[in-house]
Structures are given as structure tokens and as C-alpha cells.
Amino acid sequence: MSIAIISNSIPVQKRFHPLLRDLGLTSATQVVTFVAGMVVISTFGRLLGAALLAEYLLIRRVAAWLNGTQLGLGVSLPRCVAYASGNSTRSPESYFVAATISLCIFTAALLLPFNLLPATFGRLFFGDARLQNLILPLSFFFTGLVTHAVVYGYYRGCLRMGVANILQCSNLAAVPLICLGTLFHTHSVTVIVIAMGTLTTLSSLLFALPIVRLINPSCLRIKEHVYELMSYGLRRVPGYLSGGSLFTLGPVIAAHYVSIDHVAHLLLGISMLTAVSISTEPLGLILLSKVSMMLAQNRKEEVRLCVKHLLATVVAFSVFVTVQVDVFVDVLVRAWVGPSFTGHTLVIRIVLLATPFYLLTVAFRSIIDAGSFKAYGTRNGLISVIVFLLLVGIEIIVLPAHLLLGGIAAALLIALITLAWLTQATLRLLFQVSFPWRDSISLVVLSLLLGGAALLIHWNGGFRTSVPELLIIEVVLSVLFVSALIRQDPPWLQFLCRTIFVQRDVAVEESVAG
Question: Do 222 and 99 meet the contact criterion of CB atoms below 8 Å apart?
Fold first, then answer.
């Protein structure tokens, strides 16, 4: 039985060698942007205070939410470019031009009313008309995100992940660090964020120049390709809006009922949750184009096998990470933004309990998009946001103001659990992949036991664990977890190891033969 599995999986492994390389590069890029984002938030919190940190995080959160409205081109552009790259009768650059024109019109139409009615939208987004000064930096920041998305989407669709990763590092790591480092003395969120948006736009335009040189006017079919991009992307806009709503509406609603410096704790919890997603986000970035190509070649069984093992992988590691982060969240917050933010860690802990459910969604939403023209992700997201809004509506009625932040965090947790359940149900429908209970239950129990050991150590030290002590504890517990994992040797671990090491052997043999 095992020999048959190995022999059947080797062709998959050979085909996935470039995928592993791109996945490694993309993972490294995500780590760089993660570290940069953590440094920016830490600097805001330590040097500029809770109120300005909340303003910055709220601008980022609203801009990211609005970015989900970009006509669905964030997913449709790389998908169409991937198909065109393997088809000599289509021009990938034509899709790039079509997407650029569409987004220019859309961005102008969206931002114009914001800036004509800043007080109205200031009250809507930030809970106070006096914060209307944040609308202009929001506009610049959003423009930078849109410009980055269309250029990044083209390179991602072509699987030119080296260039795409450099662009990602430039716009999401270097630009924020440079702007904050040179302008923090102004103590102005407006100045800092406008600079971030401007430099992101200019950087993206610079990376777009090689694409422009490849454009052949005789191959442009703008109207046809706009229609193709829109027909695939627009039906996914409600899904992306609903997904962003889960992380945006909570802080926006809270800003209407509590002071913005208290909202900072909810925003920090959400930032930590999204930051942890770097562990699985590269899967989605790479697999949308790769799975689209494989399905176009009718290799669905190979996709099914990979989805099955990746699902077990995400579940196993995400539960361990979640338990450890939740136990030591006070230590992490104190080291990250300073001791003044450790007073409301319960809100952050509740949000971080959603980590395994959110990671599962992030890892597989692109595979779902690639696996069906029907927008299952949109349906799943809408159901989840309805659950969230119903819960928050009830909480606003029955909870006092000082408990509302915790209630919103709990509503977010329940909504993300719902979204994860719907995601795995969709995977089962599209690829006949069931949730790997048998491969996961023992590792989940082990993660909980190791979490209990971590909590006991933290409690024994009077909950004053230092960062060096935390590092030592986590190294020891991680070694125990990995040792138990190797001893158990589940099927998904066998698959990953065979994939990595067989590829290394193949690469060596090819170099020797050459």
C-alpha cells in the first residue's frame, strides 16, 4: 500500500519542484514584510502613543477593507495572466492594460466622494467627524495599495515570483520603515501615511516599466479582456468585502462607543492574527496560479492529493502556534509596543484563539478560487459576516460599554470559526477532500498539553516571563512537538519530506547529468 502511494506521488513531486522554490522565496518575503510591519507598529506604539497608533491601524484596516473592492482583480488578474502565459494566442500584457484602466476609473470614482464629504466619512470610518483629517491619508494609502496590486498581480500570474517578491519587500517593508523613520518626529499620522501611499505608488510604477515595454498594441483586446476579468472578479467582490469586514467593522463599530485609544487593543489583536497568517499566505499566493494551470491540464487528482496533505499540515502546526501565542501574549505585547498596552490582553487573547481557523481560510481560499468559476468564497464570506453582524448587534444592545470590546472579539472568533468550517466544506465539495481528523487529533491533544506546560511555567514565574526566558521555553517545547511529530510520522509529513528530498535528489542528478 505504502509503495503504491510513493510511486503515485513521485510525478506530483517532480512537477512541484518549481513550486517549492517559489514557496520558499515567497515565505522569506512574507517574513521580511512581517518583521517590518511589527517594527512600524512597535515604533508607533512606543514613540507616538496609543491614540496615534489606533489612528494608523484604523487607516490601514479600512484601506485593506476597501482594497477588497478593487473589482476582484486581485485574484482575476493573476488567474487570467496565468492562463494567457500558457496560451500563445493570448497576451498577458493585454490583461495588465485592461486591469490598469479598470482600476484607474474605479479608484477615482471611489475616492472622490470621500474627499468631497470628509466629515461624513470621517464619522463613518473613524467614529468621529473631528477625524476627517484622516480621509486624505486614507486616499493616498489606498491608491498605493491599488497600484501595487495590479503590478504584483501581473508578476504573480506569470509566476515571476522573484520580481513579485522584490516588489512586495519594497512596498510593504522598505517604504513604511523609511517613511516612519524619517517623519516620526512630526507626530502626524497624516504626514506619515501620505508619504507611505505616495512612495508605494511610485515604486509600483517603476516596477511596471518592464511590463509596459512588453506591450504589443496589435495584441491588445481591452474590451474583451475587461469583460473576462470582470466576469470572474466581480462575483468575488462581496466575498473579499465580507472577509475584510470581519477585521474592519469591529474596530469601526467600537470607535463609535469607546475611546480610540481603547480600540487600539482590538486592532493589535487583529494585527497579530493577520501577522501570523504569513505562515500560510505564501501557499495561496503561489497556488492560485499553479492550481489554475494544473486544472487547465486536467490534473485534478494531483491537486486533490496536495490539498489533502496541506490541510493536515495547516491544522497540525496552527494549533500549536495558537496555544503558545495565547499563553504568552502579555509577554509579546509588552516586548512589542510597551508595557502600557498590557492592561487589556483579554481582548487580544480572544482574537488570537481564531488563529487556526483563519490560517485554514487563508491557505485555501485561492485554491477554491482556482478550482471553480463559481464564487464559493463569496458565499462563505457573506455567511460569516452576517453571523458577525448579528452577534455584534445583540452585544451592542445587551452589553455595557466596558465589555463591548471583548464581545466584538468573541463575535470575530465565532465568525472565523464559521468561515473555516465553510471553507473545509467547500474543499470537500470541489476536491473530495475530507477534514483530516485521524491525522490531526493526536497532535491537537499534544499541542494542548504543551500549552498547559507553558501556562504552568508562566504562572510559576508570576506571569513575569522575560523575552529570553520565552525564547528558551519555546525552543524546548518546539523540539518536543517536532520530536513527537517525527515519531508519529503522519502521512502528510511523509508526503512533504518525500517532496522536498526527492526534489533535491532530482536536482542533483540533473546537474551531474548536465
Answer: no
